[in-house]
Amino acid sequence: MGAELWRRSDARQQKTTAVAVDSRTAVLASLLAQGLRTRVMVSETPWGTGLYLLDHEGRPLRNWGDAPDHTKPPTLAVRVAIVPSDLDEPVDVYLDPVADTQVEYAGNEAHPVEDAAERLIRHYRPAFPRAEAAGR
Predict the structure, then answer these.
(1) Can you name the residues that pair with 44 across neighbouring β-strands?
(2) What is the residue-wise DSSP string for 16-74?
(3) Is the per-residue pLDDT at 68 higher than 80?
(4) Among residues 33, 30, 31, 53, which one has the least CA distance to residue 41?
(5) N or C: which end of the chain has fewer CB within 10 A?
């Protein structure tokens, strides 16, 4: 299963377009897509390229942000990593909670690409039932 990379081009209209990415981002996205049996969306940030995992309906995983209000639907897309523009910097890994799953907050870390993928897969696997079943 190859990585499918998508970038939000117009947040208001929710259009997506294919985007060229650097090799570290492509490797991380591919490892995540294969390890979690999902797709990955990327977005440009001031610090590098942000990665988001997409659910089975093609939407980014979501949560409620820093002030959870479980009476409302989760609206914040969960950015799972930033691959810095500076090639000497490690990948920033965000181990955030995911709404309606057993995935809970576990902090932020920095890792080389392959270690970042391994850590992210281990953390977010419960949000992907097909990957969870395959990982057993």
Answers:
(1) 49
(2) EE-----HHHHHHHHHHHHHHTSEEEEEEETTEEEEEEE-TTS-B-EE-TTS--TTS--
(3) no
(4) 53
(5) C
pLDDT at 12: 44
Residue 109: φ, ψ to 5°: -140, 170
pTM score of the predicted model: 0.83
Instruction: Determine the length of the chain.
Output: 136
d(CA 126, CA 22): 28
Tokens for 36?
């979690």
Give the per-residue pLDDT at 17: 61
Q: How far is CA 31 from CA 2, 91, 121, 127, in A?
A: 9, 14, 9, 16
